[in-house]
Amino acid sequence: MGFFDTILFPFKWVVSWIMWIFHEGFVFLGMDAASGWTWTLSIIGLVIVIRAALIPVFVKQIKAQRGMQSLQPDLRKLQQKYKGKTDQLSRQAMTQEQMALYKKHGTNPFAACLPMLIQMPFFFALFQVLNGVSNASAGGEGIGALTPAAITQFDEATILGAPLSSSLLHGFGTEGHTSVVVLSIIMIIAMTASQFITQKQIMSKNMSEEALQSPFMRQQKMMLYVLPLVFGVGGINFPIGVLIYWTTTNLWTMAQQFFVIRRMPTPGSPAAKALAERRARKGLPMVPLLGEKKAEPAEEVPVPVKGQRQQPQRKNRKKR
Questions:
Q1: Roughly what angle, to the nearest 10 degrees, separates helices 88-105 and 55-70?
Q2: Which of 105, 123, 232, 283 is surrounded by the fewest CB atoms within 10 Å?
Q3: What Å distances lie between residue 208 and 71, 196, 299, CA to CA?
Q4: Residue ranges per domain, the chain?
Q5: pLDDT of residue 281
Q6: pTM over 0.90
Q7: Three-state SS string across the chain, please?
Q8: Cβ–Cβ < 8 Å for 180, 240
Q9: What are φ and ψ of residue 38, in 5° steps?
């Protein structure tokens, strides 16, 4: 077992256990154990469990993203302060002040990528499980919690005529290759399109004008086109089961972002203005948005009471 396989071993067990539990549950409800639809629903169940467990991490991601946006003015001042200074002491001082800014705003550049980083081991584990189905079935072996019988069922399971363990790259010349090619292309397009739409929705509706002009956002705009392209090209090697997993998780992200943009938009964004207009039309008070600093109540200045001016009392003079 290689180093990569050793790292993914516990994740493969988790993935296989969740799929097996959902599969057995659907079989108990009367579905065919060998049906591709039963295994497809088991993969969708795997997505639901993982993404539901990541909701607290997603909330932290939102706060981190808004913290990154709020510190952009201070970050630009810091960059201007050390502009043209390339010596080691200046670079070290700039790094320390930058870390202090991140700490002050309670964020860091990696927090926004945390949900995806946490999902990646499960994604690769599922890839290995589905990629090893054919070899395990031929050798009469199990994978994780999936017994040899379950592996054989999965290897023979098809959806719309395409085996779940087949990929576009290896689908030519196999049984049902036309269905594999057509379904793989449809799933790759759905996977990349849902990912692009989700990120585009954030940038167009849930970011302030100041945040859109920041250097950080220029990198995000570049990633908007690069990531779907990377997943689209890599998708030709993904088994159909993995494409179903990744498309489903993208759809979950899209629905989650839609809820956040509508109910908890970024302060100063077009979505925040739209929320304020909706609440104003309904006569509802505007509530503080997630990540928005509450305004401190102003100190009450005592107002002098107007009335008759009190005359100073004259001191009695000593009698001579």
A1: 120
A2: 283
A3: 13, 20, 30
A4: 3-71+107-273
A5: 82
A6: no
A7: CCHHHHHHHHHHHHHHHHHHHHHHHHHHCCCCCCCHHHHHHHHHHHHHHHHHHCHHHHHHHHHHHHHHHHCHHHHHHHHHHCCCCCCHHHHHHHHHHHHHHHHHHCCCCCHHHHHHHHHHHHHHHHHHHHHCHHHHHHHCCCECCECHHHHHHHHHCEECCEECCCECCCCCCCCCHHHHHHHHHHHHHHHHHHHHHHHHHHHHHCCCHHHHCCHHHHHHHHHHHHHHHHHHHHHHHCEHHHHHHHHHHHHHHHHHHHHHHHHCCCCCCHHHHHHHHHHHHCCCCCCCCCCCCCCCCCCCCCCCCCCCCCCCCCCCCCCC
A8: yes
A9: -65, -45
* Residue 160, token pair as written in the block: 């719309």
Identify which has the larger pLDDT, 100 or 295: 100
Output the pLDDT for position 278.
Answer: 82
pLDDT of 245 above 70: yes
Instruction: Give dist(CA 212, CA 216) in Å, integer.
Output: 9
